[in-house]
Amino acid sequence: MTTTNKSLAQQIADNLLQLRQQAPLVLNLTNYVVMNNSANALLAIGASPIMAHSRCELAEMVRICGSLVINIGTLDETWVDRMKTAAQFAVSADKPIVLDPVGVGASNFRNQSALEIATIAARGNRLIIRGNASEIIALANTAELTPANAAASVKGISKGVDATDSSHSALQYGQALANYFNAEVVISGETDFVIGKNNRQYQLNNGDPLMPKVTGIGCSLSALTGAFAATSQQPGLCAAAVMGIAGQLAAKNAKGPGSLQMELLDQLYSLNSKTIEQNLIAKNIL
Ligand SMILES: Nc1ncnc2c1ncn2[C@@H]1O[C@H](COP(=O)(O)OP(=O)(O)O)[C@@H](O)[C@H]1O
Ligand SMILES: Cc1ncsc1CCOP(=O)(O)O
Ligand SMILES: [Mg+2]
């Protein structure tokens, strides 16, 4: 069977196998809240995490990593400077970069910093932006990309790090960002949208409403996107699928947010082609 004839589930399962065989090193400049969740999610899926942000080692770290994940969740002036430096190194080394614009929409500092980092990271044409609906809308607005046909109800004002908009209402904004930065864009929420390159767009309806009750699951999704970016051509689709399916299966066994967090790692670890085939709810919408 050729790749194009394979079902989406088979493609995702193949990419997961490849990720586990290659165990890519994912360099994370991420926030203090989620360093542990993100590292554990990467290990559970089969990747190898490193969290590092010193200027003294960034050049070497970028050289040996398979991908770079930049997450601005607990940014300050020093971190933003490091993130720009890391992005520049990754562009020079032709490494994929994932940007998680955590909390964009909540402050002008976040808006401007995310835009500046994205502008640098996009120079390598290997940028993936993964955010919730409000972050995606706010980042597009900051870049003055407001689509003419966007719904009037759209706010793009993050309630801190949480979304107040639906991912459906962010779709036009995500597409505008994808065009502007020549980037892949993943919008997460009750429904996930993946705006890929080459006119590919996917809608995924896995997941569980308990997932946003645990901090750092969106950040872990961005970290997993980094792992797939190092090893496959469909990073956004694969990461959204495995996180959605693992979250959904984890929620079946969980009593609440505490056990969901633990179950999620176990489900990421044991995900296989059968569970992907049985549970994936995804379609190509373009
Ligand atoms: N209401 C929901 N129903 C099902 N899955 C959800 C829901 N909200 C979020 N998710 C899932 O949780 C994960 C993180 O998404 P999200 O909460 O949007 O990120 P963030 O934490 O960055 O705001 C994604 O896999 C997404 O599909
Ligand atoms: C609560 C919080 N505050 C700053 S970063 C962060 C974690 C956000 O994680 P996620 O976007 O995955 O919910
Ligand atoms: Mg987030």
TrEMBL record:
Say if the entry is tagged with keyword S-adenosyl-L-methionine.
Answer: no
Pathway participation: Cofactor biosynthesis; thiamine diphosphate biosynthesis; 4-methyl-5-(2-phosphoethyl)-thiazole from 5-(2-hydroxyethyl)-4-methylthiazole: step 1/1
Residues recorded as binding substrate, renumbered to this chain, are 51, 216
Q: Which UniProt keywords apply?
A: ATP-binding, Kinase, Magnesium, Metal-binding, Nucleotide-binding, Thiamine biosynthesis, Transferase
Give the superkingdom in one word: Bacteria
Q: Name the reaction it catalyses.
A: 5-(2-hydroxyethyl)-4-methylthiazole + ATP = 4-methyl-5-(2-phosphooxyethyl)-thiazole + ADP + H(+)
Residues the entry annotates as binding ATP: 130, 188
Gene3D superfamilies associated with the record? 3.40.1190.20
A Gene Ontology biological process noted in the UniProt record is: thiamine diphosphate biosynthetic process
Q: Output the SUPFAM superfamilies linked to this UniProt entry.
A: Ribokinase-like (SSF53613)
| One GO MF term attached to the UniProt entry | ATP binding
The entry sums up its family as follows: Belongs to the Thz kinase family.
Q: What job does this protein perform?
A: Catalyzes the phosphorylation of the hydroxyl group of 4-methyl-5-beta-hydroxyethylthiazole (THZ).
* Name of the protein: Hydroxyethylthiazole kinase
Print the organism lineage. Answer: Bacteria, Pseudomonadati, Pseudomonadota, Gammaproteobacteria, Oceanospirillales
Gene field? thiM
